[in-house]
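Hello,

Our lab assistant flagged a job as stuck in the queue for most of the afternoon. It eventually completed. Since we weren't sure the result was trustworthy after the delay, we are filing this so someone can double-check. Below is the sequence as submitted and the structure that was eventually returned. Let us know if re-running is recommended.
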Amino acid sequence: MDHYSIALIPGDGIGVDVVREGTKVLNTVSELHGGISFDYKEFDWSCEYYAKHGRMMPEDGLERLKDFDSIFLGAVGYPGVPDHVSLWGLLLPIRRQFEQYINLRPVKLLQGIQSPLAGKTSKDLDFIVIRENNEGEYSNIGGRIYEGTDADMAIQNSVFTRKGVERVLRYAFNLAQKQGKRKHVTAATKSNGINHTMPFWDEYVKKINQEYPDVTSNIVHIDALAAFFVSKPETMDIVVASNLFGDILTDLGAAIVGGLGIAPSANINPEKKYPSMFEPVHGSAPDIAGKGIANPLASIWCTSMMLDHLGHPESAKAIILAMEEVIQEKFVTPDLGGHATTEQVGNRICEKLKTRLK
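-- returned structure --
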């Protein structure tokens, strides 16, 4: 029996709704598999917690989380709490202290969903974006001076280290070697305009590629690459990018396969020294929280990624196939043109799993 401890952080808004359905799917897999079990501990860390305590999580929050096998996060964000407060108070400390330096985002068109890109099918839209998740343009180095005067000024420094760049690139090339359809890595850059960090990045792309002679690569300027996501996504296999570029590209990737409502993500510590964190990226959407219309597919997809990371690829695949069955039956929430509730979609996917994992 493989036993896993899962920290649940539903967070704000629809995070509560969709984590509930994701947990239901994990429990169904556990019941049907017979060799997997889960223990959960829920934490109420959120913007509501911030309103009561003046911080997004307790001072010892990271210490409480460090021994779990995985973290399942719903969403953070609520009107009245600035985004930089909610993110830097909860999400980003977890990513950094637990060295979750890989942000994994599949760009995959599920069967039954129509892409906004004319003529593109699930065969054309099936690749992975790897975003560097700990440093780069989102480094917490810089400051503000002379606020409220004519000399008002802000500086934000980008930090690219050899260690940080090499490890994300090596992960990308390794993934291309093992799972890539074409064993090809596309690296985002902007070395024609950013003349220190981006040539540094490009240099290490070429260097790491030498360790993987069976994998090809190319380096593409971020503006052109964004256009290629739209004009020729079928040429993509494994895409790797810095923190900011990866953030932008992955939201674009979600848009071309149906929207953020079905977009999952994984914040991975590949060495498993610390827990990895799995989260849908659709945000907290407080205006529809508790109404039963939030789409749980992104959260449920996260459970598939979690199981894959924990070493159960067959169960992970079964969840994706069950999702596709439900989508093709049009048994979906209103954002995808259906009439099902959040709970009903979760229940239907669990029913499909019972036929696949029996």
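-- support follow-up --
The delay was a queue issue, not a problem with the job. The result is valid. Residues 15-33 form the longest helix (19 residues). The longest strand covers residues 2-11.
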